[in-house]
## 1
Amino acid sequence: MTEFLSSLLVLAQDGAAGLPDAAGSSTPAAGQRPSGGLDPFFIIMFAFVAFMLIVAMLGPRREKKRREALLQSLRKHDRVQTIGGIIGSIVELRDDTIVLKVDESSNTRLTFARSAIQQVIGSRETRDSRDARDAAPAQVPAGAVDER
């Protein structure tokens, strides 16, 4: 059986060279090495295909975990952008839906599926810490002149 497979491999590589002779033994053509095992090319190709499959499976899994964490971390008053490009702040959170306030002057509220949120633009905690930092007076080193 292995002799048949090796003959078939030789035929596939070299056309008619390597056909069994009248005695039934297959001898490699001049300048060819006898095929007795796996060709290194096939081993490298198998490893490359296996690597590509692993990379193709891990990428979406990592992205899915990141997206689930984003959707679970949504809080009231977070400023978000939907997949349609609508920007608003979260007014109400439900299990599968989110109510966004998109216009302050007319108090326009839109309801979206939770999965329609693409990104968090700003959360209340980061805005509060930024406002507190901006409101704090700048400290001037001793001996320096404040030129405000």
## 2
Amino acid sequence: MIQPIRMPNQAFVSPPELVEELKPLGNEITCVRGTILFHEGDPAKGVYIVLDGHASLTMTTENGATALARSSGPGSLLGLPGTFLRGIYQLTCMIDQDSRLIFVEREKVLDFLRQRTDMCMLVLNILGTEVAQMPVHPVQPKRRASRKSVHGSAPSA
């Protein structure tokens, strides 16, 4: 059985200046424990900023084993790699305790970064940290069938 790689939480607290700049671009939402924000393989809708609470991020192998796991708390940006890089979420994100978040749509994040190129280096630093913490032989996330998102619309396939 594959033991999941547990990633250090402190490595994923996002730079406060980036978080503060993104907050006004989004809408505050509350999620109860057990809410799935996104599934690996789903189209990226945007990023979530954790204000209060915690979320778990996991990646599974083709046979369903958990290959990667981490927990994120206040100050974390959830879904940034998928939003910024490929347009597909690479992990599944589930709320671990009732939480307050800000959701920023993907196009708003990308427009912001086009206008604020000074913030791009902060994003690259976050992405570089995440890549450095990944397994040496990355696990390809399995594709999942589209599901209803937190925002009530089914992602397009």
## 3
Amino acid sequence: MKNLLKLTFLLLLTIAMSCSDNCDGVECGPGICDDGTCECPAGFEGDSCEMLSNAKYFGIWITGDSDCGAGNSTSIDSVEIAAHPNGNANEIQFTTFASSFGGTLDGTLVNGNLSAMGDITNYPTTLTGNFASDTDLDVNLSAGFFNCTIAFSKN
């Protein structure tokens, strides 16, 4: 009888331990916990889904080489890429800094591919680009009758 009680106790203890929740105390921010590990939604990464995937691209980028056709170069000195204030993880704001062509475009940044549109200095402007690395950005920009390819380096 004593052995039966011990066996029953061990069986109940095993069942209770196997039902424990590995997610107790695990914070996953916008993600969900699965067996103690955070699964992050698109646009977030990190052990607790605490980082925007695009954050490594945020900041000031300095203009390098540019070609706007017919021997012309861009007047853009630098640009800034920032998180969009709407909080969507894949949306950004792309701001140009130039003496005659400054403004902000709303856009998206997904898997290192950048796309933005809007008006800058009363010109309908379209921008597409990609990140050759975390510190190199290549952009095609169309504004009015200008079509430019511009290389930027992270400041």
## 4
Amino acid sequence: MIKSGLSGHYQNYDMDKVLIKNLQVETIIGIFNWEREVRQVVSIDLEMEFDNKVAAKSDDIEDALDYKKIGKRVSSYVERSKFKLVERLAEQIAKLVLKEFPVSSLTISVTKPGALRGSESVGISITRP
């Protein structure tokens, strides 16, 4: 909700978004035999819906979505994972964040740099409520 004009009434608005961009983590990921033995870098972008009004007013981290905690938790999880597909990795990260943090929904992108010759990266983007 935001105040509108002179009336002072509140209107609906899209939820605020907290971003983590290009979180790079080394993990086991891939379907080929060599990929099951060599750690590769994946890049993770998170866009998390969270109501930031209280934190904006209080200027207190306790009222905010602590992106440092989320980044550390996601990094730790991904470092220990051994999925074959980025699709599965993205889904599991989404479940983890939605379960452990006060996020109403999120969009997550997971990319593998250098996975396809001639491209910067390949990956997936999913949105979960």
